[in-house]
Amino acid sequence: MKVIIIGGGASGVMHALYLRSLKREVDILILEKNDRILKKLMKTGNGRCNISNKDMDPKFYNHYNFIKELYNEVKPSEVLDYFKGIGLLLKNDNSTRLYPYSESAKTVIDTLRYELDKGSIEIKCDQEVIDIIKKDRFSVITKSDKFQADYVVVASGSIAQETTNLYDVLKRLGHSITKLEPGLVALKVEEDTKSLQGIRVKCKASVINDDNVVFFEEGEILFKDKGLSGVLVLNLSRHVNINSIISIDLFSDYKDIDKYILSFIGEKNILDILGSLLPKMLAMYIVKTCNYELGKILKMIHDLRFKVVGNYGFNQGQIVLGGVAMNDINKDFSSKIIEDLYLIGEVLDIDGSSGGYNLHFAWASGIISARSIFEKNL
Fold it and tell me: How many whole angstroms separate alpha carbon 271 and alpha carbon 102?
């Protein structure tokens, strides 16, 4: 039996390793378009590799019910135990995010590559797939070669920080691709934020669409020359559209801040008061925007608004919103359209919040799809 995995990222590598652990005699080949596998993994968690999260709740994903069933089938703890079993001990930071104990993505990559070598899993890099043909068996055609397989697992990722993808090939095979947009990406805003560039604030922020709050979260925002970034904004970006309003409450954790500020009026001017509570340039931005009017200032520190006019694009997005429609996929990640074809990881229309959720989905989808192929060939 021959299995070809298209894509040597997180989901593809996990599928290969887990299938090998279940079935020693299967012939497994990974085709990777880049010059090396697991290239994108090096960037995750600012190089620390945010493998997973202790709070693996389906609410952090766009397809709640699908994820709920998936994580009932392969418990999040099972994924973490797998890593522990191959020598990757995990720890969390001061949040629920989980990292390798070394806090180095290179450690994760080296460990996974060691397991691939130990399992005699063949890897061919610089192999960009341009077509998949199914007759009695699969023919997988790259720019330079042609390969035959009994099963094909598409783990090709998305166009986030990549130049090529398999969307057109999958369309030709009959799959639907939902609208593609950058996800977990910095936002461009209408307001002039140049004076705030480089400032970081911890706050509560909400996404307002058509006067309705559709999402809110607490975290850190980083102001850019022409927009907003930071982990909090990346999560907000999954819920915005053009003309959405980002509302920032700078003192959500201090209920009596208004009373505190008012207690200094008459003793200090408002700019000096705010300047002792916030970064100086942010305090100045608020005071000048409100034309020094106290009532407006007290309102704005709880509702500092920015209008979304765009984002920083696929090249800066950590993930893509959209992909192969979930209606085309069975619970074991096999295609409903092409027999013995599997689709896993980021190529699917599954997206999660920042914090290890997208990587965990990649690991879990690799495990479930490997189990499915194994069970078909008992």
Answer: 45
